[in-house]
């Protein structure tokens, strides 16, 4: 038992090194184990499907520190090295949502080939320049409204709130981003967000003049409403959680792992003091993650928006760490393309939440919670922010926020 523990500790010290201090070839391959490997809702065998595992990991968007980009805010930093790791993890979890939205979960990246226009459009949304929807510039500047100055470290809740605000401007993707507060997911709240036509006042149409039909289609506001009744805005659900005080509670190990097994999984953003990671799956009790802690030069697209994209894909075995090393402050993400996807997620989550639940799933807004509209207008994240600052304060490299 002692030798096994020593081996485990030695492995952890190697596996959790960041890429800045480690040559790619030194990263350990997947272990020879019969335990299944789960990555974002897909199951693999470490014994017979190592190539498939690596291909799937490589197809995820990998956002890391960059240097020599346009100054943030015109006069701010030109690199996010040392402070942008959680922002990059936020980019990765949202990047996975956009891949699912436009290309599908089973899409794979082919290096060295001219890429599909949809893929290029997604990647351009994250390029390090001020006018990209989800660039480091936009995230850092939007974070100022959440009380984070440019260059200050984020926690999982803050980056979730910022991504929610930025997604409003992405009219092409038309995402409904919901951040569940107070450890509670309210089904009614989400369905109204994803199907805004539910609030449509049909009586107003009846009271107005009869809608006219032109070329076989209804004209005017009622026609638009009829069109929208068939639509569900694709949902990105982000759930900030605290799974313990200073360490993750062992009771949450299995429920958290089951989240990675769901087809709706976008993974988890979190990590440890001094380093945020994007967790995409697990094998046994080890979490599989992409690490943003390597600094690469900024990339500029050419005239037709094509550019070398190899540096946006992790082309070597991903890092792993024991689940007990995970800081308890995380945000779990899920993507539901359709209402059926969301209903299926609810059914699965109800099974997962038996025992010690990570969060609550309720049909309608509990009376003791603030309404969604109030949260949107005057966010009061006192409790979650206090916990997030606890996470931040353990990072000695960054400014310790006063409580």
Automatic annotation (TrEMBL):
Residues 1-20 form the signal peptide. It comes from the Eukaryota. GO terms for biological process: aggrephagy; autophagosome assembly; mitophagy; piecemeal microautophagy of the nucleus; protein processing; protein transport. Residues 51-347 form the Peptidase C54 catalytic domain. InterPro entries: ATG4_LIR (IPR046793), Papain-like_cys_pep_sf (IPR038765), Peptidase_C54 (IPR005078), Peptidase_C54_cat (IPR046792). Its EC number is 3.4.22.-. Pfam families: ATG4_LIR, Peptidase_C54. GO terms for molecular function: cysteine-type endopeptidase activity; protein-phosphatidylethanolamide deconjugating activity. It is found in: Cytoplasm, Cytosol; Cytoplasmic vesicle, Autophagosome; Endoplasmic reticulum; Mitochondrion. It catalyses: [protein]-C-terminal L-amino acid-glycyl-phosphatidylserine + H2O = [protein]-C-terminal L-amino acid-glycine + a 1,2-diacyl-sn-glycero-3-phospho-L-serine; [protein]-C-terminal L-amino acid-glycyl-phosphatidylethanolamide + H2O = [protein]-C-terminal L-amino acid-glycine + a 1,2-diacyl-sn-glycero-3-phosphoethanolamine. GO terms for cellular component: autophagosome; cytoplasmic vesicle; cytosol; endoplasmic reticulum; mitochondrion. Keywords: Autophagy, Cytoplasm, Cytoplasmic vesicle, Endoplasmic reticulum, Hydrolase, Mitochondrion, Protease, Protein transport, Signal, Thiol protease, Transport, Ubl conjugation pathway. It is an enzyme of class 3 (hydrolase). Belongs to the peptidase C54 family. PANTHER family: CYSTEINE PROTEASE ATG4 (PTHR22624), CYSTEINE PROTEASE ATG4B (PTHR22624:SF39). Cysteine protease that plays a key role in autophagy by mediating both proteolytic activation and delipidation of ATG8 family proteins. This is Cysteine protease. The lineage of its organism: Eukaryota, Metazoa, Chordata, Craniata, Vertebrata.
